[in-house]
UniProtKB/TrEMBL annotation:
Spans traversing the lipid bilayer: none
InterPro entries: Pribosyltran_N, PRTase-like, PRTase_dom, Rib-P_diPkinase
Catalytic activity annotation: D-ribose 5-phosphate + ATP = 5-phospho-alpha-D-ribose 1-diphosphate + AMP + H(+)
Record-level Gene Ontology MF annotations: ATP binding; kinase activity; magnesium ion binding; ribose phosphate diphosphokinase activity
Official protein name in the record: ribose-phosphate diphosphokinase
Single biological process term from Gene Ontology: purine nucleotide biosynthetic process
Domain Ribose-phosphate pyrophosphokinase N-terminal intervals: 1-121
Keyword list, A-Z: ATP-binding, Kinase, Nucleotide biosynthesis, Nucleotide-binding, Transferase
Originating organism: Phyllobacterium trifolii
PANTHER family linked: RIBOSE-PHOSPHATE DIPHOSPHOKINASE FAMILY MEMBER, RIBOSE-PHOSPHATE PYROPHOSPHOKINASE 2
Coiled-coil regions listed: none
Documented EC number(s): 2.7.6.1
UniProt keyword annotation of Nucleotide-binding present: yes
Amino acid sequence: MRMFVLNDTNDLGVAVAEMLSIPVAPHEERDFKDGEHKARPLVSVRGKDVYVLQSLAGGSVASVNDKLCKLLFFIATCRDNGASSITAIVPYLAYSRKDRQTKSRDPVTTRYVARLFEAVGTDRVITLEVHNIAVFQNAFRCQTVHLDVRKLFVPVIRRLAKELPLIVFSPDSGGMKRAQLLKETLEAVQGKEVGFGFMEKRRSRNVVSGELFAGDVKGSAVFIVDDMISTGGTMLRTAHACRERGAKAVYVFATHGLFNPGCEALFNSPAVNRVVVTDSVPLSHQTGSEPHAKIEIVPVAALIGEAIRRLHSNKSITDLLGDED
């Protein structure tokens, strides 16, 4: 096995390698003055099972397109140099939100990205919490592995809820299945019923509307869950609605903390007690600054490392996927 970690996701990659008790294989990355770049392994990959880790969130240093190209080119050169198999570990998979046509002549970018991975010889793609798992699985013709983070969130939710009644809440109807599965996971662990709710959201030409609110949150600890936080506007809108209806505490949970410009309002609002994300995206990827005091980070290295261990030894990964029985 060879595990390569591209520079933009170095901390997470090193943690995964430590979980596997293997060294990170050396590689070279060079950027040229005209904007081109190259990356290559510095050890032989011939006959090896190669794992390449790179998260694809754009930031102030490198765009999502730069990171995607670098990852694709690195996979291609490993294929050209005789790798036996190549697995792309992409904790945050860019363009997964653009999975269907919502306007006339819209691109279906998720499918195009899948074709790019296939074209360079990728055998398997591992990711965490894509926007729509069915679209992800159908877009790729190579093997896909969608790791589930619900079990990582459960102990954090139980600690934060304390003795308050617990409500899992979706900020829009599209995320109801995600919230429902988290609710069921919590109920299985706690042995008692967990509340559920959702809020209506419609977006057209970047204008958000919809006021329907379903669920009784009065006196409860509300946990709003989504796949990602970009500017945090959707989460903050839902948090305010929960507070107006008597929620005792409101916590925001997401797998991917993109935290693009505008997210400061989420952190500064008294409506939100805490924001919990994983380290699938380096929190300094936008500004290079330290995480806000309101953010709590849940590490995913153990989950990714265990998936790699089992895949490499041809063992079952079913309990890591979060599939329904």
